[in-house]
Amino acid sequence: MTAEDLSAVERREAEKAINVLFVGMEITIAKGSFKRKEETIRFDHAALAKDAIDMLVARDVEHPFDCVIIDMRGEDAANPLNVVAIAALRAARRCVVLSKQDDAEIYGSLMGVHDVLCEPIKPKAIIATVLASRSDVRIESENMVSLDEKRTLEPEADQEAGASAQGRPDVPVEPEVPAVEVATAKSAQPTETKSMVTKGFEASISKIAEADQGLWRRFVPVANFAYKKLAVVILTALFLTFLTYGAMIVFFMGSSSWSLPFELSRGHALVDKTERDLSSMRLRANQVRQDLKSASVELSAAQRDKRDGQLQLDLMRRTIDEEILLQNYQQLEITKNIARLKRVIADFNKLNGQGTFAKNLEGAYAKRLITRKALNSSTLAVLETLHRIATVENEIAQRQLELNKVNRRLEFLLSLRQEIDKPEITVITSAGSDMAHLARDVILAKTQIFNAGKQEGSAKLRVAQLENSLGVITANLTSLEKTPAARALDAPVMVLFVPYTNTDQVLEGEKLVGCRFTLIVCSAVGTIGGPISGETTAVHPLFGKPLRGKFMEANFYDPRSVTQEIVHAKRAPMFF
After folding, report:
1. Which burial class, exposed, middle or buried, applies to 339 when counting CB atoms under 10 A from its CB (0-12, 13-18, 19+)?
2. Topology of domain 3-146, CATH
């Protein structure tokens, strides 16, 4: 087989194949639905409409696509202009749009769109559309060629018929040839017909080009004039802009009398910070007042405990004093009783001697001075006397024991009395159980006084500290409430931001000057008020860099003056 035969076979295969272009991200899944062997289908895919347009422009009319299927169901692809741009290209013979149900009417009304498939879209519908596109393109091409040949052949037939009728009057004019016969004639002479169609198309293109050139000749002078004038206006505006910018740079580099007006109100950072500080200080003041009240209660309780302990100690002192007097009296009485009893025994012993009474009775009885009865009764009387003397001695011993107890009590009471007057109890002598409660009560009273004294001192110190803190907080709160930032919580307050480099020129009481155009057409707008404590920051009005400075209160004649970009102190910057 020769090369000519191979090229003819390839042309036939190319003519038989259906060229399809899919446009969209999801449409590529439809390629697997084509399994027919009698039709050869060639697929191309473009994910975006821009890529599809580039492919169509590259193919142009020499290798067009029989069918272009555009998927417009996605949110990012739903732009009807993409469909218009694709359908307007000659390389897209048949344009089919896959759309949502709500957008079907929009895409169906677009010029160049042959069919619209709405959701739900079945693969069979896409297959039928692709296969039908080949036959539709062939019929359309044949009809277009037949119509062009008819339009070309009809004038020539009329001319020949007219010429024959004029040259030969006896020869009748042939009737008009039907359209079917013209199509048959076209099949017999394809080369000549195609040439005539091409010539007619070129003539139409040349007429359009001439009309376009005429329109362009009238439009170019107007466009040139407008371009020149617009260029002059733009250059003038740029020159004035650069001139103004340069003047502003020179002013800000050399002047130190400008400041930035601000309106302090709720929402401004300084006002919000002041509000937080006020709330914090008021909360702290309330807490200090509560703590001060608690400390005062503790101080009163400590003072009351100390007073009660002191009263109890005084009572114990008086009780011990009375008890000492009573014990001294008992000591004296017991001593007297013991001495009296001892005298009785001494007198008896002095009279009785070494058993003198018994011996005398026995001697008298031996001498028969007394009778036996008298001896017995006298002896009994002597025995009774001795018994009474023994009882007296026993009583003396008991009195001596009582005296010892009294002496110990006195020693205990005197020791306890001395310890009461000391700051702290160190030594207490022992005593009987009947006196132990006195020592216990004294120790408890002294301990209560000591503890109450410590609590009183601590409470007094805490009260003094809290009173001092409350005084400082109240003073700071009063001072902060008088600041412009605090007053801005109730109503807007006009202030000036003054950079540190300008503080020597922007002084309290000086005149404020505002300008319509920043530097020119100026007039007095107010006066400068007092400074506001604390550092703040702002942005330079021209250079945009951060600035450090402070706020000063501004007294504007008209509140609208705060909207100006900058204001000047003392005088206008350009003297007018």
Report:
1. exposed
2. Rossmann fold (3.40.50)
Going across the sheet that includes 41-46, the strands are 41-46, 18-23, 67-71, 95-99, 115-118
**For residue 552, what is the enclosing H or E element?**
strand 546-556
One-letter identity of residue 46: A
Angle between helix 49-59 and 80-87 (nearest 10):
10
What tokens were used for 440?
A: 């216990």
Phi, psi of 438 (to 5 degrees): -65, -45
Residue 436, SS3 per DSSP: helix
Query: What CATH architecture is 274-451?
Result: Orthogonal Bundle (1.10)
Q: Rounded CA gap, 114 and 69, in Å?
A: 10
The answer to whether 530 and 484 are in contact (CB under 8 A) is no
Unique residue bearing structure tokens 């001072």: 479
Q: Which two tokens stand for residue 357?
A: 């009474």
Length of the chain: 576
Q: Kindly report whether the peptide bond that precedes residue 120 is cis, defined as omega within 30 degrees of 0.
A: yes
**Which residue in 138, 231, 146 sits closest to 190, CA to CA?**
146
Which pairing describes strands 567-569 and 511-515: parallel, antiparallel, or unpaired? antiparallel
pLDDT score of 471 = 92
Q: Is the peptide bond before 484 cis (omega within 30 degrees of 0)?
A: no
Question: What is the C-alpha to C-alpha distance for residues 66 and 132, in angstroms, rounded to an integer?
Answer: 10
CA distance 348 to 389: 8
Contact predicate 109/83, CB 8 Å: no
Q: Please provide the distance, in angstroms rounded to a whole number, between the alpha carbons at the two ends of the chain.
A: 100
Segment (H or E) for 263: strand 258-264
| CA-based nearest residue to 266, from 67, 76, 486 | 486
Q: Which amino acid is it at 402? A: E
Q: What is the DSSP letter of 560?
A: G
Of 76, 69, 80, 70, the C-alpha closest to 103 is 80
Contacts of 565 (CB under 8 A, 6+ apart): 260, 518, 541
pLDDT score recorded for residue 70? 82
Longest Cα–Cα distance in the chain = 242
Q: E-strand spans in 72-194?
A: 95-99, 115-118
Contact 532, 495 (CB under 8 A): yes
pLDDT digits (tens, 9 = 90+) for 295-343: 999 999 999 998 998 898 888 888 888 888 888 888 888 888 888 888 8
This model's pTM is above 0.70: no
Q: What would the DSSP string read from start to end of 136-172?
A: HHHHHHHHHHHHHHHHHHHHHHHHHHHHHHHH-TTSP
